[in-house]
Write a structure and sequence with these properties.
Layout: E1 2-5, H1 6-11, H2 13-21, E2 26-30, E3 33-38, H3 41-56, H4 62-70
Parallel strand pairs: 1-2
Antiparallel strand pairs: 2-3
Length: about 80
C-alpha cells in the first residue's frame, strides 16, 4: 500500500495510475487526513461482491465486517 498527498497524486497521476494497474493500493491524504483510496477496477468489484454475498446470504454483520477491514489500516493513524 502506498500513501501519497493529493498534490503528489495530482502532479504524478500517471505514475500512481500505473501503480494501481500493477495491483498497488493508494491512500490519498489531504491536510494530513486520509480522504480517498485508489484501487483497481477488478479489486473494487471483488470488494463489492464480497460485501453483497454476506448480505444476500443473510449472514452479514456490518460492525464485524467494518472492524475486519479497518485492521488493514490501523498502522496509518
Amino acid at each position: 500500500m502506498t500513501v501519497a498527498t493529493a498534490t503528489e497524486i495530482q502532479n504524478n497521476f500517471g505514475r500512481y495510475l500505473q501503480k494501481v494497474q500493477d495491483g498497488d493500493e493508494i491512500v490519498v491524504l489531504k491536510n494530513g487526513r486520509q480522504v480517498a483510496r485508489l484501487i483497481s477496477y477488478e479489486e473494487s468489484v471483488s470488494f463489492l461482491t464480497d460485501s453483497l454475498t454476506g448480505i444476500l446470504e443473510h449472514d452479514y454483520d456490518d460492525k464485524e465486517m467494518t472492524a475486519e477491514r479497518m485492521k488493514k489500516y490501523e498502522d496509518f493513524d
